[in-house]
Amino acid sequence: MTTNLNTLLTALYVKIDDHLGCRPRVGRPPRLSDAELLTLAVAQALLGIRSEARWLRFVPTHLPGAFPYLPGQSGYNKRLRAAVPLIKRLIRVLAADTDLWHDPVWVVDSTPVECARSRPTALRSNLAGWAGYGYCASHSRFFWGLRLHLIATPAGLPITWVLADPKIDERQVLIAALDHDRTLTADRTGLTIIGDKGYVSRELDTYLAERGVRLLRPSYRNHTPRPGEQLLKPIRQLIESIFDTLKGQLDLELHGGRSIDGVGARIGQRLLAMTAAIWHNRATGQPTTRSLTAYDH
Fold first, then answer.
1. CATH of the domain at 132
2. Angle at the Cα of 167 (from 166 to 171), degrees rounded to 5?
Protein backbone atom coordinates (compact mmCIF):
# COMPACT_ATOMS: atom_id res chain seq x y z
CA MET A 1 0.00 0.00 0.00
CA THR A 2 1.19 3.50 -0.80
CA THR A 3 1.78 5.42 2.41
CA ASN A 4 0.92 9.10 2.17
CA LEU A 5 -1.23 11.68 3.90
CA ASN A 6 -4.36 10.85 1.90
CA THR A 7 -4.26 7.14 2.74
CA LEU A 8 -3.68 7.91 6.41
CA LEU A 9 -6.57 10.41 6.57
CA THR A 10 -8.94 8.04 4.77
CA ALA A 11 -8.09 5.13 7.06
CA LEU A 12 -8.29 7.36 10.13
CA TYR A 13 -11.67 8.82 9.18
CA VAL A 14 -13.13 5.33 8.63
CA LYS A 15 -11.71 4.11 11.96
CA ILE A 16 -13.08 7.09 13.92
CA ASP A 17 -16.46 7.00 12.17
CA ASP A 18 -16.83 3.27 12.83
CA HIS A 19 -15.90 3.76 16.47
CA LEU A 20 -18.31 6.64 17.06
CA GLY A 21 -21.18 5.06 15.11
CA CYS A 22 -24.59 6.72 15.27
CA ARG A 23 -24.64 8.52 18.60
CA PRO A 24 -27.92 10.12 19.73
CA ARG A 25 -27.84 13.91 19.57
CA VAL A 26 -30.07 16.69 20.81
CA GLY A 27 -30.85 19.33 18.21
CA ARG A 28 -29.53 19.81 14.70
CA PRO A 29 -26.47 17.68 13.80
CA PRO A 30 -23.29 19.67 13.04
CA ARG A 31 -22.32 20.12 9.40
CA LEU A 32 -18.79 18.95 10.28
CA SER A 33 -19.00 15.56 12.00
CA ASP A 34 -16.75 14.59 14.92
CA ALA A 35 -14.92 12.11 12.67
CA GLU A 36 -14.26 14.86 10.12
CA LEU A 37 -13.22 17.31 12.85
CA LEU A 38 -10.58 15.00 14.32
CA THR A 39 -9.32 13.89 10.92
CA LEU A 40 -8.96 17.58 10.02
CA ALA A 41 -7.09 18.22 13.29
CA VAL A 42 -4.67 15.35 12.66
CA ALA A 43 -3.95 16.61 9.14
CA GLN A 44 -3.23 20.10 10.52
CA ALA A 45 -0.75 18.74 13.07
CA LEU A 46 1.03 16.49 10.56
CA LEU A 47 1.42 19.32 8.04
CA GLY A 48 2.74 21.67 10.73
CA ILE A 49 0.32 24.55 10.15
CA ARG A 50 -0.11 26.13 13.57
CA SER A 51 -2.47 28.95 12.61
CA GLU A 52 -6.06 27.71 12.51
CA ALA A 53 -7.14 30.55 10.19
CA ARG A 54 -4.32 29.76 7.75
CA TRP A 55 -5.12 26.06 7.96
CA LEU A 56 -8.76 26.58 7.00
CA ARG A 57 -7.61 28.62 4.00
CA PHE A 58 -5.07 25.92 3.07
CA VAL A 59 -7.46 22.93 3.04
CA PRO A 60 -9.69 23.77 0.03
CA THR A 61 -6.66 24.29 -2.24
CA HIS A 62 -4.40 21.45 -1.11
CA LEU A 63 -6.96 18.85 0.02
CA PRO A 64 -9.81 19.55 -2.42
CA GLY A 65 -12.97 17.59 -1.76
CA ALA A 66 -11.62 15.98 1.42
CA PHE A 67 -13.86 18.05 3.70
CA PRO A 68 -17.12 19.22 2.05
CA TYR A 69 -17.76 21.77 4.81
CA LEU A 70 -15.29 23.83 6.81
CA PRO A 71 -16.31 26.02 9.75
CA GLY A 72 -14.85 29.45 10.46
CA GLN A 73 -11.77 29.78 12.64
CA SER A 74 -13.73 30.49 15.83
CA GLY A 75 -16.09 27.58 15.21
CA TYR A 76 -13.21 25.20 14.51
CA ASN A 77 -11.38 26.34 17.65
CA LYS A 78 -14.52 25.96 19.79
CA ARG A 79 -15.24 22.46 18.46
CA LEU A 80 -11.65 21.36 18.97
CA ARG A 81 -11.53 22.59 22.59
CA ALA A 82 -14.80 20.80 23.34
CA ALA A 83 -13.43 17.60 21.81
CA VAL A 84 -10.59 17.06 24.33
CA PRO A 85 -12.31 14.05 26.03
CA LEU A 86 -12.96 12.54 22.60
CA ILE A 87 -9.35 13.10 21.56
CA LYS A 88 -8.14 11.27 24.66
CA ARG A 89 -10.51 8.38 23.97
CA LEU A 90 -9.45 8.05 20.35
CA ILE A 91 -5.75 8.06 21.25
CA ARG A 92 -6.54 5.01 23.37
CA VAL A 93 -8.65 3.40 20.63
CA LEU A 94 -5.91 3.74 18.01
CA ALA A 95 -3.18 2.66 20.43
CA ALA A 96 -5.12 -0.44 21.49
CA ASP A 97 -5.57 -1.36 17.81
CA THR A 98 -1.83 -1.97 17.41
CA ASP A 99 0.36 -4.85 18.52
CA LEU A 100 2.47 -2.32 20.45
CA TRP A 101 -0.31 -1.81 23.01
CA HIS A 102 0.65 -5.10 24.70
CA ASP A 103 4.35 -4.23 24.97
CA PRO A 104 5.52 -5.32 28.47
CA VAL A 105 7.90 -2.33 28.74
CA TRP A 106 6.88 1.33 29.17
CA VAL A 107 9.00 4.47 29.40
CA VAL A 108 7.96 7.51 31.44
CA ASP A 109 9.22 11.07 31.64
CA SER A 110 8.04 14.68 31.45
CA THR A 111 8.92 17.67 29.30
CA PRO A 112 8.16 21.41 29.51
CA VAL A 113 5.21 22.88 27.63
CA GLU A 114 5.98 26.59 27.71
CA CYS A 115 2.92 28.88 27.68
CA ALA A 116 4.37 32.38 28.13
CA ARG A 117 7.68 34.24 28.26
CA SER A 118 7.21 37.64 29.89
CA ARG A 119 6.10 38.22 33.48
CA PRO A 120 3.15 40.49 32.48
CA THR A 121 1.89 37.82 30.05
CA ALA A 122 2.06 35.16 32.75
CA LEU A 123 0.11 37.36 35.16
CA ARG A 124 -2.62 38.13 32.62
CA SER A 125 -2.85 34.61 31.17
CA ASN A 126 -6.02 32.54 31.53
CA LEU A 127 -3.65 29.73 32.55
CA ALA A 128 -2.75 31.52 35.80
CA GLY A 129 -3.52 29.09 38.58
CA TRP A 130 -2.92 26.09 36.32
CA ALA A 131 0.53 26.84 34.94
CA GLY A 132 3.61 27.87 36.92
CA TYR A 133 7.35 28.34 36.85
CA GLY A 134 9.55 25.30 36.46
CA TYR A 135 13.10 24.31 35.57
CA CYS A 136 14.15 22.02 32.74
CA ALA A 137 17.45 20.37 33.68
CA SER A 138 17.85 18.83 30.21
CA HIS A 139 18.03 22.28 28.60
CA SER A 140 19.22 24.24 31.64
CA ARG A 141 16.40 26.77 31.47
CA PHE A 142 13.49 28.09 33.48
CA PHE A 143 10.06 28.31 31.88
CA TRP A 144 6.48 29.30 32.66
CA GLY A 145 3.83 26.82 31.67
CA LEU A 146 2.97 23.17 32.24
CA ARG A 147 4.74 19.84 32.05
CA LEU A 148 3.61 17.04 29.79
CA HIS A 149 3.97 13.72 31.61
CA LEU A 150 3.96 10.89 29.08
CA ILE A 151 3.86 7.13 29.51
CA ALA A 152 4.62 5.40 26.21
CA THR A 153 5.98 2.19 24.74
CA PRO A 154 9.62 2.28 23.58
CA ALA A 155 8.31 2.68 20.00
CA GLY A 156 6.61 5.93 21.02
CA LEU A 157 3.00 4.75 21.25
CA PRO A 158 1.26 6.85 23.95
CA ILE A 159 -0.26 4.85 26.79
CA THR A 160 -1.49 7.81 28.82
CA TRP A 161 -0.56 11.47 29.33
CA VAL A 162 -1.06 14.24 31.85
CA LEU A 163 -0.56 18.02 31.82
CA ALA A 164 0.40 19.31 35.25
CA ASP A 165 1.90 22.27 37.10
CA PRO A 166 5.71 21.93 36.77
CA LYS A 167 6.11 22.16 40.54
CA ILE A 168 4.17 18.93 41.12
CA ASP A 169 6.46 15.98 41.79
CA GLU A 170 6.84 13.56 38.86
CA ARG A 171 6.35 10.59 41.16
CA GLN A 172 3.01 11.90 42.41
CA VAL A 173 1.85 12.56 38.85
CA LEU A 174 2.72 8.98 37.85
CA ILE A 175 0.77 7.58 40.81
CA ALA A 176 -2.20 9.83 40.04
CA ALA A 177 -2.17 8.83 36.35
CA LEU A 178 -2.21 5.12 37.16
CA ASP A 179 -4.83 5.62 39.88
CA HIS A 180 -7.06 7.54 37.46
CA ASP A 181 -7.21 4.55 35.10
CA ARG A 182 -6.59 1.30 36.94
CA THR A 183 -7.27 -0.73 33.79
CA LEU A 184 -3.89 0.35 32.41
CA THR A 185 -1.92 -2.02 34.63
CA ALA A 186 -4.59 -4.71 34.93
CA ASP A 187 -3.81 -8.02 33.21
CA ARG A 188 -0.28 -6.92 32.33
CA THR A 189 1.85 -9.59 33.89
CA GLY A 190 5.52 -8.65 34.08
CA LEU A 191 5.03 -4.99 33.19
CA THR A 192 8.20 -2.90 33.54
CA ILE A 193 8.31 0.91 33.64
CA ILE A 194 11.61 2.65 32.92
CA GLY A 195 12.25 6.17 34.21
CA ASP A 196 15.05 8.48 35.31
CA LYS A 197 16.27 9.56 38.75
CA GLY A 198 13.21 11.76 39.18
CA TYR A 199 11.23 8.60 39.94
CA VAL A 200 13.42 7.44 42.83
CA SER A 201 10.98 6.86 45.69
CA ARG A 202 10.31 4.07 48.13
CA GLU A 203 6.64 5.03 48.15
CA LEU A 204 6.46 4.72 44.35
CA ASP A 205 8.33 1.40 44.38
CA THR A 206 5.85 0.02 46.92
CA TYR A 207 2.84 1.39 45.02
CA LEU A 208 3.94 -0.24 41.77
CA ALA A 209 5.03 -3.50 43.39
CA GLU A 210 1.54 -3.90 44.90
CA ARG A 211 0.19 -3.79 41.34
CA GLY A 212 2.72 -6.25 39.98
CA VAL A 213 4.72 -3.56 38.15
CA ARG A 214 8.50 -3.31 38.21
CA LEU A 215 10.13 0.13 38.10
CA LEU A 216 13.63 0.40 36.64
CA ARG A 217 15.48 3.68 37.22
CA PRO A 218 19.01 4.79 38.09
CA SER A 219 20.05 4.98 41.72
CA TYR A 220 21.59 7.98 43.40
CA ARG A 221 25.39 7.99 43.43
CA ASN A 222 25.57 7.17 47.14
CA HIS A 223 23.28 4.13 46.73
CA THR A 224 24.19 0.62 45.64
CA PRO A 225 23.42 0.21 41.91
CA ARG A 226 20.36 -1.88 41.18
CA PRO A 227 20.58 -5.03 38.98
CA GLY A 228 20.68 -4.18 35.27
CA GLU A 229 21.11 -0.46 35.91
CA GLN A 230 24.00 -0.18 33.45
CA LEU A 231 21.61 -1.12 30.63
CA LEU A 232 19.12 1.67 31.33
CA LYS A 233 20.80 4.65 29.67
CA PRO A 234 20.19 3.71 26.00
CA ILE A 235 16.61 2.67 26.79
CA ARG A 236 15.87 5.92 28.64
CA GLN A 237 17.03 7.84 25.57
CA LEU A 238 13.96 6.49 23.77
CA ILE A 239 11.63 8.82 25.68
CA GLU A 240 13.82 11.76 24.65
CA SER A 241 13.49 10.73 21.01
CA ILE A 242 9.70 10.60 21.43
CA PHE A 243 9.69 14.15 22.83
CA ASP A 244 11.97 15.16 19.95
CA THR A 245 9.34 13.92 17.47
CA LEU A 246 6.62 15.86 19.30
CA LYS A 247 8.68 19.05 19.47
CA GLY A 248 10.70 18.92 16.28
CA GLN A 249 8.06 17.60 13.88
CA LEU A 250 4.74 18.35 15.59
CA ASP A 251 5.62 21.71 17.19
CA LEU A 252 4.63 20.71 20.71
CA GLU A 253 6.08 23.87 22.28
CA LEU A 254 4.54 26.14 19.64
CA HIS A 255 0.98 25.12 20.50
CA GLY A 256 -0.42 28.67 20.86
CA GLY A 257 -2.93 27.70 23.57
CA ARG A 258 -4.08 30.49 25.88
CA SER A 259 -6.46 28.58 28.19
CA ILE A 260 -6.38 25.19 29.87
CA ASP A 261 -8.88 23.81 27.31
CA GLY A 262 -6.91 25.36 24.46
CA VAL A 263 -3.57 23.92 25.59
CA GLY A 264 -5.18 20.54 26.29
CA ALA A 265 -6.74 20.45 22.82
CA ARG A 266 -3.52 21.35 21.03
CA ILE A 267 -1.37 18.91 23.00
CA GLY A 268 -3.98 16.19 22.50
CA GLN A 269 -4.12 17.04 18.78
CA ARG A 270 -0.38 16.44 18.43
CA LEU A 271 -0.43 13.22 20.45
CA LEU A 272 -3.38 11.98 18.36
CA ALA A 273 -1.44 12.79 15.18
CA MET A 274 1.61 10.84 16.36
CA THR A 275 -0.58 7.92 17.49
CA ALA A 276 -2.40 7.89 14.14
CA ALA A 277 0.91 7.82 12.24
CA ILE A 278 2.21 4.94 14.39
CA TRP A 279 -1.10 3.08 13.98
CA HIS A 280 -1.01 3.48 10.20
CA ASN A 281 2.68 2.62 9.92
CA ARG A 282 2.16 -0.62 11.84
CA ALA A 283 -0.94 -1.51 9.79
CA THR A 284 0.91 -0.97 6.51
CA GLY A 285 4.16 -2.66 7.59
CA GLN A 286 6.42 0.39 7.39
CA PRO A 287 10.04 -0.15 8.50
CA THR A 288 10.12 2.88 10.83
CA THR A 289 7.25 2.89 13.30
CA ARG A 290 7.32 6.56 14.35
CA SER A 291 8.25 8.09 10.99
CA LEU A 292 6.09 11.08 9.96
CA THR A 293 7.98 11.85 6.75
CA ALA A 294 5.34 10.35 4.46
CA TYR A 295 2.63 12.53 5.99
CA ASP A 296 4.22 15.98 6.38
CA HIS A 297 3.79 17.20 2.80
1. 3.30.420.10
2. 90
